[in-house]
Structures are given as structure tokens and as C-alpha cells.
Amino acid sequence: MTAITNGLPRDRMLSEPRDLDLRGKSGSRALKNSVATAVMWAAFAIAVIPLVWILLTVAVKGGHLILDSTWWTNSQQGITARREGGGAVHAIQGTLIQGLVTALISVPIGVLTAVYLVEYGRGRFARIVSFMVDILTGVPSIVAGLFIYAVFITTFGFTRAGIFVCLSLTLLMIPVVVRSTEEMLKLVPNELREAAYALGVPKWKTIFSVVLPTAFSGIITGVLLGLARVMGETAPLLILGPYTKAIATDLFGGNMATLPTMINQDRDQAVTLPAYDRIWAAALTLILLILLLNLLGRLAGRFSKV
Amino acid sequence: MKNTRGARFAALAAIGGLALAGCGSDNNTATTTTGTAGSASSSSAAGSSESAPATDCPSGTLNAEGSSAQKNAFEEVVTAYNEKCADLTINYNPTGSGTGIKQFNAGQVDFAGSDSALKTEEKDGVIEVDAAQKRCESPAWNLPMVIGPIAVAYNLDGVDKLVLDAPTLAAIFQGEITTWNDPKIAALNSGVTLPDTAIKPFFRSDESGTTENFTKYLKAAGGDAWAGEPAKSWTGKGEGKEKSSGVADAVKATAGGITYVELSYAKDNALGMAQIDNGSGAVELTSDSIGKFIATAAADGEGNDLRLKLDYATKEAGAYPIGLVTYEIVCSVNKDAAKQNEIKSFLTFFASSEAQSLIEEIGYAPLPAEVQTKVAAAVAALS
């Protein structure tokens, strides 16, 4: 019995009821079924509980601050841990600027690498490139930060600045962009390429005006998701991007605030102080920012019907 | 069509980001203040403004890094300084004393804050004093600027006054005394009814100058009672919590809890603070009593290098013997004259009575008059 019904599609089982004994599930099967169901739901709940918990805690503790308009218009300049007020605009700006510059550096490199891997790469060199991208994917963010620190600060003697944060974030973002773009380019039907070739279009032009445009929204999705990942990154910022309470937009000199470093700056304060609430609000702002990017990524993805 | 829609989203995101990045204000003058610190700071700032030394106001940016113990004092002073001189932006990153010195010696920051003076002996292949000299091309000076009293904070219902001494504290933090009504504690607290609650010591699980200074005290004043060596990481018993806020929270939430923590955290969490018997009677932790302790310190440096050798075993009447000194570490001669002028302007204010009384309000202690005069002279000698 069990042996026969196992592995059969459900509709087929239902379509030949007369041959089967359908007096209800046997005891052991019913038990297995309910155990499996219970385990599944429990696993789901375990996965969701911390998520909801974190979101609720952050929203409850930091929500009231971000509803205040000064949060979005003012910096923390002149605000000590014991004073209320001020905003996070310096940190939001820093996070956005660094994210944007990181994207500007990593997107061309990442997309072109993916084009090479999908369209041109054959043989050993392509395999090596692909392997290197895999390795880069596994590099912990702290290593990326320390690498840039060792090269630019220790060896070349620069002082820490926002641009070095961008460079280390680039190391983290490139593999994400390469992988997602690669997947998108692979999805482009070969018939499109063949049709272009049949019309006598050269290969570079085919890639440029047929393959890339077809995969465009998918690539955008990948880029936005990659950006969302690096914008929440903390380790390289702690090493390379010292915090400031003032608005600073110069990537090439001086301290620059970001949301993660803003959180780090005051996390050691007593819970009774206003600074403590601001940590939660900064965390909530960061979550919202990344949520927004993810939503944009999904939205762009909906137009990707390759 | 699909593509242009995708592009439109990308453009929208970029424009939105830039629009948000385009505006924003650093002007936070009309802010409300909470607690004693804010109101006291404004009144003392107004009251003693004529006594403050005249500072010229350079414009620029100073970056400092180091001790987290002085962070709140530093921020308070920076805010007060910026009320006079708004054009000098001063950033402080509380990454810890060791990191601060490393960044200073690597030329990453303009000056460092550290809970211990630059070390003269080799550690990890580096002699800090020499590395600093190399960075500055002149001797680096340790200027004591902030005194951070360390409170022995406890949570014991119905006990408002508790006296402890070094051997007892050593025994408590090594797990040798386990209940609050132990005869050793009772002997120091005649007339106080001690409950039989279990003692739950909490320590800093992260490396900390507070731990180092507390264990220095236990070692110096407790004699053989403390078995370990003074160090930044804890060698005694108890439960570890991260950072000052961690131990303060733990004591607040635990009946029978005890820990060592900076005064401001004990105050902010409304914890009980033990009086310390230094051999000539119980001493309450006040800015006066911690000042007496710092005043007993011997000068350990030459000329304007004002490193202090704290006498933890002091028996001076009325001196509270547990505290730490945060130094600002600066180049005595700076290649960048404009930068040195900025440092000088800010540190002159930091060493003034006005700034020192400001930080007293938030749980630090002002420099004793004698030390303050020396620091002011040293700052004036920076070039």
C-alpha cells in the first residue's frame, strides 16, 4: 500500500480511488504527517520570531525620534550624549554618498566581468576568473577593510577617508554584482543572439544593444540588492571611516559619519540617556533605508521578464 | 519599454538620494537638555565666562581618538567650546586607549586620549614613547585632562551606606566572600543590618582601562589579598558583562550585585556606591575626595610631560583611592603650526576651570588646582 501510493502525484491518487484503500490515513502515516507539519511550522516560527522581535524593538524604541522632522534635517553637531535633539542627516548622507560611490565603482567592473564570463570567457582563464569571484564572495568584510587599510594607510601613508571605505565596500559588492548579472545574462535566450548574428550584427553590438538591454532590469535588481548589502556593512567603516557629528561630504579627507558608525559611537551609553534612544532610531533608519533599496530592487525585478 | 522603466527607477533612486544629501543642518543650538548636566552646564558656562582664559578661535577640524572613559567629558567640553568658537570642528572617536595611541603614532589623528601614559617599555615590539617621538619629530607629552572616579556600585535593598576596603573588595571579587552578611563586611559596617543575600560580582568582559585601574588599586592597597596582576582584562571571579553600560545594567537588575564602574554610570543608573576605607577611615566618593587622591600622585615625567604616578595605597585622610586619569597625548612641537594652534586653543579651554567644572557635573572630577596649573602651562608651551 504505502509503497504504491508513495511517489504518486496527488491527482493520480485521487483519480483512481476505487483501487485504493481510502479508509483514511493509517495511524503511522497520520502521525508522520502531523509531526512533519508541526516541525515545519515550528521552524517557521523560530525563523520569524527574532525577525519580528528585532523589528518591533527597534520600531518601539527608536520610532518616536524618526517621526520628528529634525531627525531628517539636522546633524548631531553640538549634541552630547546627555542632550536630546539633533538628527541623523549627517549619517544618512554619509551612508548614501558612500553607497553611491561604491556602486559607481563596482557596477561597471562587475557588469563587464559578467559579460566577459558569459559572452567571451572560454577555457582556463575564464574558470580562474569565475573561481576568483567565488573566493571574493567569501571574503569577510573585516578582511576587506583591513586589506584596504594595509594597502592605502599603512603602505602608502594616506589618512583615513570616506573613499577608502568605498574601496573596501567595492571589494564586497563586485562579486555580488558579477554573480547576479551573470545569472541574468545567462537567462537571455540564445535565439536573440543568433537572430542578431543572422542580421550581420557584430558581437559587441549584439551584447551592447540586445543582450544587456534585455537583462537590464534584472541587472538593476542585482545592483540594488548588492548595494543594500554593503550599505549595512559595519566592519570596514569602523576601521576606515572615523565618525563625526558634523555634516561632512568630502570623500577624500576628514571624518565622515555613516549610520553604522553613528550607532557604534553611542552604544556604550547608559540606558537612561537620550543618546541611547538615538542609537535605536539610527538602527531603524538604517533598516528603513535598506528596506527601501530592497523594495526598489524587487520593483525593478518585476519588469524583468526575461 | 521595459528597459526605460527600469532606468527610471534607478534614476529615481539616485535623484532621491542626492536630494536628501543636498540639505541638512549642523545648527542644533535650540536643543533641550535633560538631567543635571545640561542645566548646570549652561549656568556654569555663563557664570565663569569672565574667569576663562581668552582663547583665539581658529577654524578647521581636529580629529582625536582613544579612551572611551573620557568620551562624555570630551563631548561636553567640545560643545561648550563650540559655543565660543563655532568654526573649529572637533571629532572624538572612543575606540579605546590602545587604539587611540596606535592611530596617533600612525599619524591618523591629531591627538590621542589614553587612560595610561605612553609606555616607556617595549610591548609587542613597539615602544610607544619612541613611536610617538618618531611621528611628532619631537617628544610627545602626556597631559592629564580628565579624572574619572571609579565607583564600587552595589544593589542591596535597605543598605544605603556601605563601607568596604581593599582586602574585602579583593575577597569579594575573587569569590572568597559570598554573602553580604559575611563577618568581614560586617566588621567594616557596624550598626548596619546586612542581609544574607548572595554577592554577585560583575566585571567588564572587554579590555578596559577601568579594570586595569581597579585591579591596580586592589593590588596596591590590598596587599596579598589580590592574587592576580593588574591588567586590562579581568582575572578575578564573577560574571562578565560588556562595557560600562553592561555592568551597570547588570547590577541594577540583580539584587546582591556589585561591580566597579565609572561614577557617571553609577549615577545615571541610581546605584548605591560604597565608601572606601583607605586605612584612615571611610571615604565617600565625591569630586573633593577623588581630587585629594589625585593630588597625592607623584609627577613621573620630565618638564611638561605630565605623566602621573597614582598612589593607590594612599592612607591620606579623606582621599578616595580608586580612579583613573585620562591623558591627552600631543606632539610638543608640531610640523603643522596651524594644526598645533587649533589643538592649543581647544586644550587651553579644556584645562580651564570653566571646562573642568563642567565635567564635574556629569560624573568626572576636576583636576586639582596644582595639576591644573601645570597642565595649563604645558598647553601654553606647545609649539
From TrEMBL, chain A:
<keyword id="KW-0472">Membrane</keyword>
<feature type="transmembrane region" description="Helical">
    <location>
        <begin position="129"/>
        <end position="152"/>
    </location>
</feature>
<protein>
    <recommendedName>
        <fullName>Phosphate transport system permease protein PstA</fullName>
    </recommendedName>
</protein>
<keyword id="KW-1133">Transmembrane helix</keyword>
<feature type="transmembrane region" description="Helical">
    <location>
        <begin position="207"/>
        <end position="228"/>
    </location>
</feature>
<dbReference type="InterPro" id="IPR035906">
    <property type="entry name" value="MetI-like_sf"/>
</dbReference>
<dbReference type="GO" id="GO:0035435">
    <property type="term" value="P:phosphate ion transmembrane transport"/>
</dbReference>
<feature type="transmembrane region" description="Helical">
    <location>
        <begin position="158"/>
        <end position="178"/>
    </location>
</feature>
<keyword id="KW-0592">Phosphate transport</keyword>
<dbReference type="InterPro" id="IPR005672">
    <property type="entry name" value="Phosphate_PstA"/>
</dbReference>
<dbReference type="GO" id="GO:0005315">
    <property type="term" value="F:phosphate transmembrane transporter activity"/>
</dbReference>
<dbReference type="GO" id="GO:0005886">
    <property type="term" value="C:plasma membrane"/>
</dbReference>
<keyword id="KW-0813">Transport</keyword>
<keyword id="KW-1003">Cell membrane</keyword>
<comment type="function">
    <text>Part of the binding-protein-dependent transport system for phosphate; probably responsible for the translocation of the substrate across the membrane.</text>
</comment>
<feature type="transmembrane region" description="Helical">
    <location>
        <begin position="96"/>
        <end position="117"/>
    </location>
</feature>
<feature type="transmembrane region" description="Helical">
    <location>
        <begin position="35"/>
        <end position="56"/>
    </location>
</feature>
<dbReference type="InterPro" id="IPR000515">
    <property type="entry name" value="MetI-like"/>
</dbReference>
<keyword id="KW-0812">Transmembrane</keyword>
<comment type="similarity">
    <text>Belongs to the binding-protein-dependent transport system permease family. CysTW subfamily.</text>
</comment>
<feature type="transmembrane region" description="Helical">
    <location>
        <begin position="279"/>
        <end position="297"/>
    </location>
</feature>
<dbReference type="InterPro" id="IPR051408">
    <property type="entry name" value="Phosphate_transprt_permease"/>
</dbReference>
UniProtKB/TrEMBL annotation, chain B:
<feature type="region of interest" description="Disordered">
    <location>
        <begin position="32"/>
        <end position="66"/>
    </location>
</feature>
<feature type="domain" description="PBP">
    <location>
        <begin position="52"/>
        <end position="354"/>
    </location>
</feature>
<feature type="binding site">
    <location>
        <begin position="67"/>
        <end position="69"/>
    </location>
    <ligand>
        <name>phosphate</name>
    </ligand>
</feature>
<dbReference type="GO" id="GO:0043190">
    <property type="term" value="C:ATP-binding cassette (ABC) transporter complex"/>
</dbReference>
<dbReference type="InterPro" id="IPR024370">
    <property type="entry name" value="PBP_domain"/>
</dbReference>
<keyword id="KW-0732">Signal</keyword>
<feature type="signal peptide">
    <location>
        <begin position="1"/>
        <end position="21"/>
    </location>
</feature>
<feature type="binding site">
    <location>
        <position position="115"/>
    </location>
    <ligand>
        <name>phosphate</name>
    </ligand>
</feature>
<dbReference type="Pfam" id="PF12849">
    <property type="entry name" value="PBP_like_2"/>
</dbReference>
<dbReference type="GO" id="GO:0035435">
    <property type="term" value="P:phosphate ion transmembrane transport"/>
</dbReference>
<dbReference type="InterPro" id="IPR005673">
    <property type="entry name" value="ABC_phos-bd_PstS"/>
</dbReference>
<keyword id="KW-0813">Transport</keyword>
<comment type="similarity">
    <text>Belongs to the PstS family.</text>
</comment>
<keyword id="KW-0592">Phosphate transport</keyword>
<feature type="binding site">
    <location>
        <position position="97"/>
    </location>
    <ligand>
        <name>phosphate</name>
    </ligand>
</feature>
<dbReference type="InterPro" id="IPR050962">
    <property type="entry name" value="Phosphate-bind_PstS"/>
</dbReference>
<dbReference type="GO" id="GO:0042301">
    <property type="term" value="F:phosphate ion binding"/>
</dbReference>
<feature type="binding site">
    <location>
        <begin position="208"/>
        <end position="210"/>
    </location>
    <ligand>
        <name>phosphate</name>
    </ligand>
</feature>
<protein>
    <recommendedName>
        <fullName>Phosphate-binding protein</fullName>
    </recommendedName>
</protein>
<feature type="compositionally biased region" description="Low complexity">
    <location>
        <begin position="32"/>
        <end position="55"/>
    </location>
</feature>
